[in-house]
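Support case: user asked for a sample of complex input and structure output to validate their parser. Sending the pair below.
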Amino acid sequence: MAESANTVQGAPMIAPPRELERIPLVSNRRGLGWLSDAVAGISEKPTPRWWWYALAGSVGTMSICFAMIAYLMSTGVGVWGLGHPVMWGWAIVNFVWWIGIGHAGTLISAILFLLRQRWRTAVNRAAEAMTIFAVMCAGIFPVIHVGRIWFAWWLFPIPNANGIWPQFRSPLMWDVFAVSTYFTVSLLFWYMGLIPDLAVLRDRAKTKLRKFLYGLFSLGWLGANRHWSNYEKAYLLLAGLSTPLVLSVHSIVSLDFSVSQLPGWHTTIFPPYFVAGAVFSGFGMVLTLLIPLRKMCGLEDVITMRHVDLMCKVTLATGTIVGYAYGMEVFIAWYGGNPYEQFAFWNRAFGPYWWSYWIMISCNVIFPQLFWFRKVRHSLKVVWIISILVNVGMWFERFVIVVTSLNRDFLPANWGYYVPTWVDIMTYVGTFGLFFTFFLLFLRFLPIVAIAEVKGVIPQADPHHPLGGAKPGAHH
Amino acid sequence: MSESATPYGLIAEFSTPADAMHAAEKIRDQGFKRWDVYSPYPVHGMDKAMGLGNSKVGWFTFIGGVSGYTLGMVMIWFMNKFDYAIPVGGKPMFSPFSAFPPSYELTILLGAFGALFGMFIMNRLPRLHHPLLKHARFKLASHDRFFIVIECHDPSYRGDETRALLESLGGRNIEVVEE
C-alpha cells in the first residue's frame, strides 16, 4: 500500500517552476498512503517499551494527585498553605496556568484555520488533545479550592436545598460557564476532526476488537464527498465558534481578578493580556510536547523544522505582547497616580516576592526574544529548553498576579508571607501525572496527526497539481 | 454476499484526484442524482464538480446559537430576578451586561452542538452499516484512492451503459456492489 502511494501512475511529473513552488508542508514528497501508514502505524505497531515506563510513571504521579485531593477533602483546606492575607494560592495559580496551556490547541485548531495557515494540520490534533487534557487538569482546582467540595454543585444552575440559585453577577459564575463550555466545545471539535481518521484506523484494523471500537467511534464514516461537504462546513463553523470562545475563556478568567477592586487585579488590560499569555504558554507546551514526540514517533516529515520555526515565531510574537502588557501595567500604575496601585507594582518587583517577578520577566520577556535568531529556532535543543522556560515563566506570572497582589493588603497589619505546603506542591505535581496519562493513552490509541487534513495539504491531493494527476494544458 | 443479493451500485476506482474530478464533472453533466465521490480527504473543487450546493449545516448552528443566547438570558433573569432575588452589592437584580458572559458561552455551546449534530443529521450519521463497508477494495477510500459509486436507484442508471461510461472516464476495477 505504501509503495503505490509515493508515485502517481500515468501522470507526467512536471512541477511548476521551482521559484513558484512553496516549500511543501510534508517533506520528502510523501504521498497520501504514506501518511496513513506513518500515523496509523504508530498505534498499530507493538507498544514500545518507553511507553510502558512513561505510563507507569504517569499513573503513579496521577495517583499522588488523587491521594492529595482525598487528604484535602478529609482534612480541610488547612492542609494547604492558604491563610490570611493570601486566601488564593497555588490552586488558582495552577488553574489559570493549566487552562492557559489549553489555549494554544484552540488557537491552532480554530484561529489558524480561519487564517488559512495550512501548516496547522500537522500539529492540530496533538495540540487539541493537549487542550482537552490541560482543561481537565485545570478543572480540578476550582472544584477542590471551594473548601467544602461536596457543595461544589452549588456552582451549577440548580437550586440548592433552600431554593437559592447561583448568583450570576459574580464573575466566578461566568467562569463556570466559560470553562465548561470550553471543555465541551474543544471535545466536540476534537472528536469531529477524529471521525475520518478513526475511519482510517477502522479500515486498517486487523483484530476484531480494533475493528469494533474504531468502527463504532468512526460512526460509519465513508469519506463521501456529500459528507465531506457538510463536514467541512461544520468544521468551519466550529472554528468560527471556537475563536470567540477561546478569546472569551481567558478573558473571563481574567475577570475573576479584574472585576474585584484590588490593586494589581483591577485593571482593564487583563482580558487581552491574559489571552496573549495563554496562547504564549500554550505554544510553549506544544513545543515541549511535540519536539520529543516527532522524533519518538518518526514524524519528522510531517512535523518539520518549518513547523517548529513557525511555532517559535508565534511564541516570540505572543511573548512580546506579554512583555508589552507587563510594561503597560507598570506604566499605568505610575501614570494613573493611584498610590495603592503604585505600591502593588513596587511590591511585585521589589517586595518579598521579588524573585518570582524576575523569574517571570526573564522567562517570558527575555529568553523568548532569542527566537529572533534563525539559528536558535532551528536548534531543537535550544527551542525545547526555551519552551520549558516559557512554561515556568507563565506559571510564575500567575503566581505573581495571585500572590503578590494579596500578600500586602492596605494596612501593614494585614501583611503576610505565603508559603505553599507539601500538599500544595504534590497536588500540582500530581496533575502532570493526570495530563501525561491521558496524553500517553492518546498517543497509543488515536491518530496523533490529523491524517485526512494533512493529506489535503500535500501537492498529491491537489487536482490542479501535476502530482495530483493534472495533465499539462488540460482544461478544467 | 449471497447469489440473491440485490445490487447497490456500480463502483469505479481512480488513483488521482484529478481523474476523479474530471469523471465527476462528466457524471454530473449526464444528470445522475444518486451518486457520490469517495476520497480520503475533502477534495477542493469537488463540490462544484459534483454540482452540490452550499451545505445547510449553518442553519443548525444558527438555531443552536440563538437558542443558547436566549436560554442564558432567560435563565439568569428567572433565577436572579424572578424566582429568588438576592440583593448583592447594590447591583441590579438583572442586568444584560452581567448576564452577557454566561449567555455568550451558551450561544457558543449550543451553536457548537448545532454544528456537530447538524453535520450528523445532514450526513445521516451515525451509520453503522453500509453496503460499501463490505466491499474489499473500498477500504482504500480512506487510504489513497478515489472511488465513484453510482447507485442502482438513480433514475439515469442503465446497467452496462453506466459501466461503459465509468470505463470511458478512466475508472478501473469497476464492480457491482451488493446491498
